[in-house]
Amino acid sequence: MKFSGRTVAFCLLGISYLIATWMVLRHTTEESRSDRVIIRISQWQLEGGVRDAMDAIIRRYEELNPKVHVVQIAVPDSVYQPWVQTQMVGGLGPDIAEYSWAWPDLARNFQPISAEVMQPNPYNRGTPLEGVPWRDTFIDGMTGPENYNQALSDYYGVSLTTHVMRIAYNKTLLREVTGRDTPPATYREMVTFCAQVKTYAQTHNLKLSPLANSRTTNINLTGEILGALTPKLAESIDYQHRLKLDPADLGISYLRGEWSYDSPSMVAALTALKEYGAMCTPGFMQRERDSALTDFVAGRAVMIVTPSWEASSLLQLCQFPIGAFRYPYPREDDPVFGRFATSPMSEGLLLTGMPFYLNRHTKHRAEAIDFLHFLGSQEGAAIFTRVSNWQPVVRGVQASDFANQFKRQSDGYSWYSGFFDPSGLADAQKFIRGELGQLWNNDGSVEAFRTVLRNGVASRVREDFRRDSIAAAGNSRREDVIAAARLEGTAGAPSETLRLTGIVNEIKLYQTRAVLARPEGGTP
Amino acid sequence: MSPRVACKLLLLAVLAAGPTVAGQITAGWQALAAYKPAEALKIFDASADSAVSAVAREARFGHAVALLDLQPVSSAALEEARKICADLADSGTDDAAQGGRFFLGRIAQQHQPQPDPEEAARQYRRLIGDHPGSVWAESAITRLAVLQIYALNQGASPAARLAQTEKLLSQARTPSAQSDVHYAIANATFFYRLPAAGALPHLIAAEQLGRMEWPTRIEVLIQIAELSRLAGDRAQAVKYFHTFLQENPRDLRAFVVRQRLAELEKPGA
Questions:
Q1: Closest-CA distance of chain B to residue A244, Å
Q2: Would you call A478 an interface residue with chain B, using a CB distance cutoff of 8 Å?
Q3: What SS3 string covers A463-510?
Q4: CB contact under 8 A, B35 and A484
Q5: pLDDT tens per residue, range A172-206
Q6: How far is A243 from chain B, CA to nearest CA, in Å?
Q7: Neighbours of A322 (CB within 10 A)
Q8: CATH of A165-244+258-346, one of 3.40.640.10, 3.40.630.30, 3.40.50.2300, 3.40.190.10
Q9: Which residues in chain A have Cβ-Cβ distances shorter than 8 Å to B104?
Q10: Which A-chain residues 276-335 have CB contacts (< 8 A) with chain B?
Q11: If you count Cβ atoms within 10 Å of the first and of the last residue's Cβ in chain A, which end, N or C, has fewer?
């Protein structure tokens, strides 16, 4: 029997229609089941194990709460933000959404959970965290900007994990090249080991690099290398005596000429960065993280710069045993950089990530909060780390054995490692990172890079501040209205003052304007 | 009883005869708080012609405030809001009048395309003088402090502007307003690179008033401890470093703070 092309096309169309109808009916039927509330949660972590971990958490939650059905929606990161925003605009947003930084209109789309985080998490009953306010059950006390929004003075996010950068290594290749089982422990050992790998590759005519890296994965480690050799510089510009800096401090101080990329410790840090670039796969700044991953998995690199969120994928992809270690920064005994180092060096601010926010317009607030409680409980966190091999963030929950190699080393000095992000905003950072070729290319040098920075950073910082001050003023105006509405629309004890944008935010706005009003290098 | 509470009680008493209207006005504010200015505007407009003056005035105030958040905010809308606020402020002493005066200040300070700090300060000073201690006046004090430090009298030195701002403390009646003014002065001391010791009494005062949000409090505890250490006040430094550690054991600076404490508490230190 022969079918014409038109018949086949109609058949395919008919089958597609039937499948679509079945899916819609199934969805509608599920929605209309009177005995189950459906909670939809969206996230964009498609790395190995994470979706499985979410599914495992959901299974356990539904065992405990048979009247609630939780649906996980995993969306690729490249389309996640527009997807959520479109859904929100259409009134179809998930009840709970993983937050992706720098979303506009946060307050319009999501609702605060400040009242809930001050109360104990019911799913921590029977654990050492019973009776402890939910906020204090997290290893960072929910102090991160994705948990507590300072501009809005409210808690919004419940985090699921935290991450650090590590050097993962191929244990088989390490032994083959060096005859030893332990990775380099000091900066000089690292330099020597990388030279050994290069010699080994030449001798055996192999395409083998010491360290696989990429345009994106170099970023965090780059910041930490800078931070390792600049604590004294950072301390010298801590004019607020807070024992730390933030991007605004750094940017204002830079525009006032209080530090530069020509400062001696900065020159040393850039030199160490140049050496780090020489350890990496040639041309790594033109490569994406997938290419670096391929090099490592295929045995073309002994080590790889990897964030801990990638490690669970490595475990699934690699046919060889893997270890991980922290990049060995130069310390005080280093013959070249020692005088700039202050150790031990912390791995920086403990910030938790993968935060989940509550849709402002959810029809099932109570059930969504209840699921968030489970997600952020000891039991939920234990399931998460066991299945995903990612770091847990609830106090008292042990990371899996593999995840333990990626445990953050928080104790130590840490002023600020954002010298390549001297405004905390987009333009300056993008400019500096875009010019790293001047440092890392074959004909690049520390001097060439410094020259480019000297001529280009200030104008970018100013532009960042200018845009930030416009956004801050907009936020301030919006909060004026909300503050008045809250005052007038709420019964209860009289307030002492309106809950306007916080005085800290208002001050920052005026300080930024003051800096912008003066010529470069001038003191306001 | 504060003037604002008295006004509210009066309004509630009037509205007791018409609970639907009272509910409507409240619903308008709630819509505004939920980022729905268009909805709020409709609700306020429905009560704008109420025979009860207090209701009509609150509805007009709500209308003006909603206009400030109805996107895009045109210059015509801004002017309409300003006019309503001016009418309300000049025709009474009730909550709507005080709110209107406060928003005249905010419109000049933050809402209009070209900020007018002098006009904002004029409105705030009048509000503070006419209604001392009201929630609107107390809020105005905190915003006036920032204006005096950063936007007004630019010919004077930063130190002179801070000295001028200190005078506002005597006008602030509530701990919240006092705390904000103290904090603003301390923060400006650092910003203008004035001798840091000058910030210490203001930071201590702000901390003792107990009204700071916790992210600010964390920083202030460290600042008091560090400045006390630098000033040689060992006991005070130790006290505040310990408070910091107790309240923020997981803060990244705990390592450095423990080192500072070990140094300060060393026998013979």
A1: 8
A2: yes
A3: HHHHHHHHHHHHHHHHHHHHHHHHHHHCCCCCCCCCCCCCHHHHHHHH
A4: no
A5: 999 999 998 999 999 999 999 999 999 999 999 99
A6: 7
A7: 19
A8: 3.40.190.10
A9: none
A10: none
A11: N
